[in-house]
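hiii so um. not sure if this is the right channel but i have a protein structure encoded as tokens and i wanna go backwards to a sequence. like what aa goes where. can anyone help
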């Protein structure tokens, strides 16, 4: 039984397997031909592997940047990183995390089936991370055994349903329909970016998109996002490498030759990773949305697949780079402010500021063009910098680690349930969950009544 559960969890937390299996189910339900079913399933599987490979290249290219930045500017503090904090937490909370994740996915499907929150959250690794955080917080609150699993699964299912639901109006603006949603636990940051984009959008003036940026004829090559990303990242990497010094690079990354060549190569790798991500996204969108129609028609009426954040990058490739830099600047400003205030200093983690900042940039651009992209991603960068400060105290012993959860939703949900646990222990958490599900059900009933009246 335990082996079977482990296999199911391995599938669930591996997006390529999870989404291709759902594509297979959807195609079978539509009674597609064997050839179309095999083609759709395999292309979905390969698309996610391409996307994951691109994300791996980007993360690998950014990994030295964080260390070089710290060495260059002599800063120390806590670096938010989901993978790092989860790897530490799983040593003690592994079983609880696995069971919360498994039953939380069922809760998400049931919510999608019986309420108006129709998203099925398909980003497996983020589901694992959120399940892990809930395992930690609810254990600190005093929950054990079955109670811990039930409460954790209900909280996870609600988060998996609400996060993409919150963002769907902005996704509709981007895509023109409700064919796909965003399943990434930094939704509050993207939501704020979208709202800021709306706020800065002038009513009379034409919104200038990040994709409409005019370049002089001699610089027209910069309109190619791959070229502009490569040049920009190479320059940034070289500047940081110069400040860090050749000795640092030689000591920490031996065998990579001249430190300037190393910096240029990493900048180029970053652009290559983004290019690969965009190709994987295009491949997935062409297959998963039509395949998901079968699930919508048979199992969960009007279901919307909620996919990982790179799914939006193709809608505004220039906003990806702009959002990353704006978010990172927000992180630097926050770091300076924390130093002045005497709080825990959260260092700007390059990986979360890229993936979350880039996505926030796309959301801000969708509503407010270039200004929305810059200001929205900057605000998101500040948000993911300060939320960990308030999250760390509710994580028990894990709060004293030199890392913490990085993306906005971990901070929001963690602080919410952690504060409830601190104020009223288990009873407050249970009441909080009852209120959350009452709101979901109440919204679904009210929306149905409005449709009937209309």
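sure thing!! here u go:
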């Amino acid at each position: 039984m335990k082996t079977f559960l482990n296999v199911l969890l391995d599938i669930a937390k591996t997006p390529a397997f999870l989404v291709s299996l759902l594509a297979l189910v959807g195609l079978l339900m539509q009674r597609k031909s064997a050839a179309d079913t095999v083609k759709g399933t395999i292309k979905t599987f390969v698309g996610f592997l391409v996307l994951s490979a691109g994300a791996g290249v980007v993360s690998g290219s950014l990994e030295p940047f964080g260390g070089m930045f710290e060495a260059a500017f002599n800063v120390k503090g806590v670096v938010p990183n989901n993978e790092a904090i989860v790897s530490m937490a799983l040593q003690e909370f592994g079983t609880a995390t696995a069971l919360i994740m498994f039953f939380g996915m069922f809760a998400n499907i049931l919510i999608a089936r019986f309420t108006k929150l129709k998203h099925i959250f398909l980003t497996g690794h983020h589901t694992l991370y959120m399940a892990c955080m809930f395992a930690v917080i609810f254990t600190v609150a005093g929950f054990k055994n079955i109670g811990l699993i039930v409460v954790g699964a209900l909280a996870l299912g609600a988060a998996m349903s609400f996060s993409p639901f919150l963002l769907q109006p902005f996704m509709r603006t981007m895509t023109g329909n409700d064919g796909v949603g965003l399943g990434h636990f930094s939704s509050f940051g993207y939501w704020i970016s979208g709202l800021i984009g709306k706020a800065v959008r002038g009513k009379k003036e034409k919104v200038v998109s990040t994709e409409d940026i005019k370049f002089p004829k001699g610089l027209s090559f910069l309109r190619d996002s791959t070229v502009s990303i490569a040049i920009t990242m190479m320059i940034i990497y070289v500047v940081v490498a110069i400040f860090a010094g050749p000795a640092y690079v030689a000591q920490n990354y031996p065998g990579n030759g001249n430190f300037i060549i190393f910096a240029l190569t990493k900048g180029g790798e970053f652009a290559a990773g983004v290019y690969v991500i965009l190709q994987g996204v295009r491949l997935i969108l062409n297959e998963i949305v039509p395949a998901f129609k079968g699930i919508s028609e048979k199992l969960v009426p009007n279901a919307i697949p909620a996919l990982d954040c790179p799914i939006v990058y193709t809608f505004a490739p220039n906003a990806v780079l702009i959002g990353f830099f704006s978010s990172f600047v927000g992180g630097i400003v926050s770091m300076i402010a924390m130093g002045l205030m005497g709080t825990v200093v959260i260092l700007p983690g390059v990986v979360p500021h890229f993936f979350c900042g880039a996505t926030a940039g796309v959301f801000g651009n969708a509503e407010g063009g270039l200004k929305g992209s810059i200001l929205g991603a900057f605000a998101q960068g500040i948000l993911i910098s300060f939320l960990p400060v308030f999250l760390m105290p509710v994580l028990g012993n894990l709060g004293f680690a030199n890392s913490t959860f990085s993306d906005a939703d971990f901070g929001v949900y963690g602080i919410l349930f952690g504060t409830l646990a601190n104020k009223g222990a288990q009873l407050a958490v249970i009441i909080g969950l009852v209120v959350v599900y009452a709101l979901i059900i109440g919204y679904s009933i009210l929306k149905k009544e409005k449709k009937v009246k209309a």
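oh and Strands lie at 79-80, 119-121, 181-182, 304-307, 403-404.
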